[in-house]
Write the structure tokens for this entry.
Amino acid sequence: MSLAPRAVLVHRTTEYEELLARHGTHGQAAFFLAARGRSVDAVRERHERTRRALAEVAGAVPLTWRQTRVERADLDRFLFGPEDVVVVVGQDGLVANAAKYLTGQPVIGIDADPGRNPGVLVRHRPDRARRLLPYAAGAGAAVDELTMVEAVTDDAQRLLALNEIYVGPPGHQTARYSLALDGTDAPPEAQASSGVLVGTGTGATGWLRSLWEQRSSTLALPAPSDARLAWFVREAWPSPTTGTTRVEGLLEAGRGLRLTVESDRLVAFGDGVESDALELTWGQTIHLTAAGSRLRLVH
């Protein structure tokens, strides 16, 4: 017998909850903010809107379904099942946080605070959940299949991200490495920089775009469903032993970027989540390409 669908509601701790955890009571939190010329009221209002959205979505789950909730900090310990319909209630970034742990489950993005989020990934209001949940579980659901980026090390560690993967120093030191491109006969280039960023068309609306605009790049950034990836080297430094001829580019489908570490320690992390990073040591190689899996985001 097949299992009934399970609605997995992904959420994150609100700013107000973080204030209460730090200061103990509402009064103490209000005093802390007031001493800095700020009011706790707006923070609490956003908290209430988020909780109402979460409650409305939970109430929309069909009675024959199972449902559970998972907080962002627990995503790396949560086991998603093939019958799950994942409902992200929050900001666009929360969809990216969940994406790396999924294997093709449909995702519904619910905007918990309309007007504050761009709505690129959280496209729906809470009142649409009642219709969207059974629709997403059906075979004919229309989804956007968004490209993801993957990093694999030479000792088989693997990392997935929806926006981008950063490879570089964990602090403010200089990263030293050699960089090579798949499909070319050119030898690797030794580089010293503050890190390398490889990202998708979804990521091209965020960190990648800031680098693209900062250097007035003429690259045509990929679209979210495009199989191509864009990559940028941050602040490459020319010296007698390091070059700057490869600082940006596009990776066509099936092509990747290969980076061999020449520093004591570098890290690789995805979508800004530094707590879930791969540790890289001298001589290790990491290969970055478009992932075989994609995020299935419900229209």
The radius of gyration is 21 Å. The CA atoms of residues 178 and 190 lie 4 Å apart.
